């Protein structure tokens, strides 16, 4: 980061230098349990709680969720469209839970445009929002006697979402699409995040509405579509 920042500065002031050679060591991000995420969601006030639940169910980047607009939500179809992506990522459509739709709809309409911001947003809005979350996290970690909660950031929700999506589908292309990554190489990190028990679920496929209906009635939940087949699963 120091080399990149200084190089950018020199490009602005027409300076030159010979950057030092270095090798980037990429570390695996921390992935919490779902219980830990839910602990923070349930401890937060309405606005923060809704924002965190949105991150959990969609895996959006923090700024993507922060810039979400009311027009992006389809309250009838329980879906959210993300067109304004970060780093020119691919647009995404999310099918979300009725719970998330309900809490989004209950938020006060302080802005006719943005969900979490004022009508005239500032550059420091998300920063202040993040600081408030840090205080909440600290209090909750102390109350629950769980220091791991202090390791959870907004971006941690995205890591958790990606890890769970890969665990459910074992498809890198599916996870890449859900995260909006430009390159599948960025997505490969989630193939070795957690060693899950491979025998913890039954899995079935369906090609017709009737087959899918029978699986749902038998307690299976929809996972994704792969090569024209609908993949379902349920816990053993």
Can you lay out the helices and strands and say which pair or pack?
Blueprint (H helix, E strand, L loop, with lengths): L1 H11 L21 H10 L2 H13 L3 H5 L6 E2 L4 E4 L9 E4 L2 H9 L18 H20 L9 H16 L2 H8 L4 H4 L13 E6 L2 H9 L3 E6 L2 E7 L1
Antiparallel strand pairs: 1-2, 2-3, 4-6, 5-6
Helix pairs in contact: 2-3, 3-7, 7-8
Please explain how this structure is put together.
The structure is a single chain. This protein has 236 residues and is α+β, with helices and mostly antiparallel strands. 44% of the residues lie in helices and 12% in strands. The protein folds into two domains: 34-193, Intergrase catalytic core (hpI Integrase, Chain A); 197-236, no CATH class. It contains ten helices and six strands. Helix 3 runs parallel beside helix 7 and helix 7 packs antiparallel against helix 8 (172-179). The longest helix is centred in the middle third of the chain and has 20 residues, at 125-144. The protein starts with a helix and ends with a strand.
CATH class of the largest domain: Mainly Alpha
Could you tell me the radius of gyration in angstroms?
A: 20 Å
Q: Helix/strand/pairing class, anyone?
A: alpha+beta
Order of helices and strands: HHHHEEEHHHHHEHEE
* Largest sheet descriptor: 3 strands, antiparallel
Arithmetic mean of pLDDT: 87
Helix content estimate: 40-55%
Distance between the termini: 46 Å
CATH architecture of the largest domain: Orthogonal Bundle
The number of distinct β-strands equals 6
- Whole-number total of structural domains: 2
Task: Sum up the overall morphology in one term.
Answer: globular
Strand order of the largest sheet: 1-2-3
Regions with pLDDT < 50 over 5+ consecutive residues?
Answer: none
CATH topology of the largest domain: hpI Integrase, Chain A
**How much β-strand is present in the residues?**
5-15%
Fourth-tier CATH superfamily name of the largest domain: Intergrase catalytic core
How many helices? The count is 10
